[in-house]
Specification:
Alpha-Beta Plaits; 4 strands
């Protein structure tokens, strides 16, 4: 199994209302990939964070193996969500991939 963890920080210029809408869109879009990408075992977006957090959202995915993670990164459904709901609104992305 391979884990894929992402932390995002949203752009500063977004208002609180815009950030809430963006978070909801990212959560809906990414979690909507469940069952659509081979090798993607689970996908979860944590969008409700405590004030002590230094990131705005977390993505937690589990894949069958590293090859499935590589295929996910270029899968058209994932790229469509990333290009429309994630990348335009994020300023920082941190990634940690590891095998369990």
């Amino acid at each position: 199994m391979t884990k894929h963890i992402i932390l995002w920080t949203l752009k500063d210029e977004l208002s609180a209302e815009e950030k809430a809408a963006v978070k909801a869109g990212i959560k809906e879009g990414l979690e909507g990939l469940a069952g659509k990408i081979p090798g993607l075992e689970s996908i979860y977006v944590q969008a409700d964070c405590l004030a002590s957090s230094t990131a705005d959202l977390m993505l937690d995915c589990t894949f069958t193996d590293e090859e499935a993670l590589k295929a996910y990164s270029v899968h058209p459904a994932h790229v469509a969500v990333a290009d429309s709901k994630v990348r335009p609104y994020t300023k920082v992305r941190s990634c940690l991939d590891f095998t369990i």
